[in-house]
Design goal:
By secondary structure, this protein is of the alpha/beta class. 37% of the residues lie in helices and 22% in strands. Strand 2, helix 2 and strand 3 form a beta-alpha-beta unit. It starts with 6 loop residues before the first strand and ends with a helix.
């Protein structure tokens, strides 16, 4: 591994101007600083673009509203890093997130992606108290097999391929299933690597009418399995 590999952090945003600054700051405040931050504005109609452009050094890209999968894909297209990380615009990282994961890659060069633990907090007083407390009880965390805890080598991401763009929800479940099928070597760390904000406009709530996409994820997985038999 390079001595100081570049990590590309991709933040897709759609009408989250009230949360975006906190997410970006949590990246810029990382103890590991060889980062590029790419905010992909998925056609927001609020002040998300203004918020993103207020940060010096943050790369900003806007696209027609297409969904979170295409927004992440656009960020990957623009990324120049050796590693790829994703952070949703309403979530936040602990300051040692990237440093901790890179140390893990250094200790085992065969690893290709590393996850960690996530703590889900409801917006409001619970969020404000939770993100200021780094001594989180182990029973309050859950294994975070989600984009926000993942750090992946760019070469490994390219092997798996892009997120499918025609699904409103379930795009990461499908992507992760493909990664498992390709036997991408992964590890889940025991440390807290992500605070997930729970609120009424979360992606899963906002797109609840698209829950049938989860069935499509399962069908796609089964179709790939049958094709190899």
């Amino acid at each position: 591994m390079k001595e100081s590999p570049l990590v590309s952090v991709i933040i897709p945003v759609y009408n989250y101007d009230r949360y975006l600054a906190e997410a970006v700051e949590s990246v810029l405040n990382q103890t590991y600083q060889h980062l590029e931050v790419i905010v992909v504005d998925d056609g927001s109609t609020d002040r998300s673009g203004e918020v993103a452009k207020s940060f010096r050094g943050v790369r900003y890209c806007q696209q027609v509203h297409s969904g979170i999968g295409p927004a992440r894909n656009k960020g990957v297209e623009l990324a120049q890093g050796d590693f790829i990380a994703f952070l949703d615009a309403d979530d936040r990282w602990p300051v040692q997130k990237i440093e901790r994961q890179l140390r893990t890659f250094e200790s085992d060069p065969k690893l290709e992606m590393v996850f960690g633990q996530a703590l889900q907090l409801h917006n409001g007083p619970e969020w404000e108290a939770g993100v200021s407390d780094y001594k989180v009880a182990v029973d309050g965390m859950v294994p975070g097999m989600v984009p926000g805890t993942m750090l992946i080598k760019r070469a490994a991401f390219d092997r798996v391929g892009k997120f499918l763009g025609d699904w409103k929800v379930g795009e990461f479940i499908d992507w992760y299933a493909r990664a498992v099928e390709l036997q991408i070597r992964s590890l889940v760390l025991p440390e807290l690597l992500l605070w997930r904000r729970i609120h009424d406009s979360n992606q899963g709530v906002r797109e609840r009418q698209s829950v049938s996409d989860y069935a499509r994820v399962l069908k796609a997985k089964l179709d790939r399995k049958r094709a190899t038999e």
